[in-house]
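Lab notebook, bench 4. The sequencing result for the construct came back, and we need a structural model before the next group meeting so we can plan mutations. Quick request posted to the team channel:

Model the 3D structure of this chain.
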Amino acid sequence: MTRVAANPAEPAAAAAHFRRLLSVETDPADLRADLEDGAGGFLVLDVRSPEHYAAGHIPGAISLPAKEITAETTRELPRGDVLVTYCWGPGCNGADKGALKLAELGFTVKKLIGGFQTWRWDRHPIATGTDQERR
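Done. Here's the predicted structure in C-alpha cell form:
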C-alpha cells in the first residue's frame, strides 16, 4: 500500500474533521465575497505589527497585534461577530496565536487560510495606511 492510501479515515470521521476545519477557518475568496457583498456579522483583524499593517492590509481590517490581545484591548470588539484573524502567510502562526487568545477571551473566531500572502497572491484589493474604519 502507498503512503497516501495508508490508514485513511472512515468517511464519517473525514466529514467530521473537515466540518470542524470549516468552523474555524475561512479562505480569501470567501472573505472577499463577504466583504464585497457587505455581509455583516464579522470583523477582520490583522494581528501583524502596526508597521506591517500600515504597509498593506485587507481593506476594512483592524490592526490588533497578537501579542497585544488582552481583555482590555478587546473590550470594544463586537461580542456577537465572528473575528477573522490573519498574519503573514502559511509559515506564520500569528493568526493562530491571536485566534487562540480571542477564543480564550470568549470571542467566536476564524483564521484566514494563507494569511495576507495568499490574499495578495490571489490579487485581492489591498489598503495601506493606518486609518481603521469598521464596516
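Helices lie at 11-24, 28-37, 50-55, 94-104, 115-121.
Will bring this to the meeting.
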